[in-house]
Amino acid sequence: MAAMIIIGAGSAFAQSENDYFSLTKNAGTESESIAYYTTLGDAVNAAADGDKITLLKDYTITVSRDNVTTDTRGVSINKSITLDLNDHKITRKNPYEIDDYGGALISIYSRIDARVTLTLVDNGADKGTMGSIENNDDYGGWAIVVGNGSTLIAKGVEILTPDRDTVDIMD
């Protein structure tokens, strides 16, 4: 049986109702561990190359002037990880015309020492439901920005941004 170690923000030994993400480190090995997180930014920060983050339920980020967090400003990924949407969706709502709150929901950038790949999948059991990432930014902003020689692989997921390009590829 694989060991279970809980790290970072989240619950000790069990998922709480406030957790939206699980992080599996060393998947399929004897040293596999799972931790739970309340924000995508916390899960990404705790992840390492090769780890998998799984969305446990729909996650909505609502930008407000009183609630400025890593997730409301967008999440930067600079490691090769898998994000399993698991039949759920990640949505960011931004009603403000302020540059600080605009931009991409997820940005992928390679490091100096390695090219980065974000793999988006939907391994949920409900084959009639497709996991999605949506940036509902009233004043611009992409769902995903792929930059600096990084790679985005999307399998069986939707990436949505109303009235704007969904994915921006920069180099």
Which key features would you list for this structure?
171 residues; globular
Describe the structure in brief.
The chain is mostly beta strands. The chain is built from 2 helices and 14 strands, in the order ββαββαββββββββββ.
Explain how this protein is built.
The chain is mainly beta. It contains 2 helices and 14 strands; from the N terminus they run E-E-H-E-E-H-E-E-E-E-E-E-E-E-E-E. It has helices at 40-46, 70-73; strands at residues 21-25, 33-37, 52-55, 59-62, 75-77, 81-84, 89-94, 106-109, 117-121, 132-137, 144-147, 151-155, 158-160, 167-169. The chain has a 6-stranded mixed beta sheet, covered by helices on one side. Strands 4-7-10-13 form a 4-stranded parallel beta sheet, with no helix packed on it. Strands 5-8-11-14 form a 4-stranded parallel beta sheet. It is globular. It starts with 20 loop residues before the first strand and ends with a strand.
Secondary structure elements and pairings:
Blueprint (H helix, E strand, L loop, with lengths): L20 E5 L7 E5 L2 H7 L5 E4 L3 E4 L7 H4 L1 E3 L3 E4 L4 E6 L11 E4 L7 E5 L10 E6 L6 E4 L3 E5 L2 E3 L6 E3 L2
Parallel strand pairs: 3-6, 4-7, 5-8, 6-9, 7-10, 8-11, 9-12, 10-13, 11-14
Antiparallel strand pairs: 1-2, 1-3
Q: Determine the strand fraction and express it as a percent band.
A: 35-45%
User: Helical stretch count?
Assistant: 2
Averaged pLDDT, please? 80
N to C succession of SSEs: EEHEEHEEEEEEEEEE
State the major sheet.
6 strands, mixed
Which structural category do the helix and sheet elements fall into?
mainly beta
Strand arrangement across the biggest beta sheet: 2-1-3-6-9-12
Unreliable sequence segments: 1-13
Q: What's the gyration radius in Å?
A: 16 Å
What is the 3D form?
globular
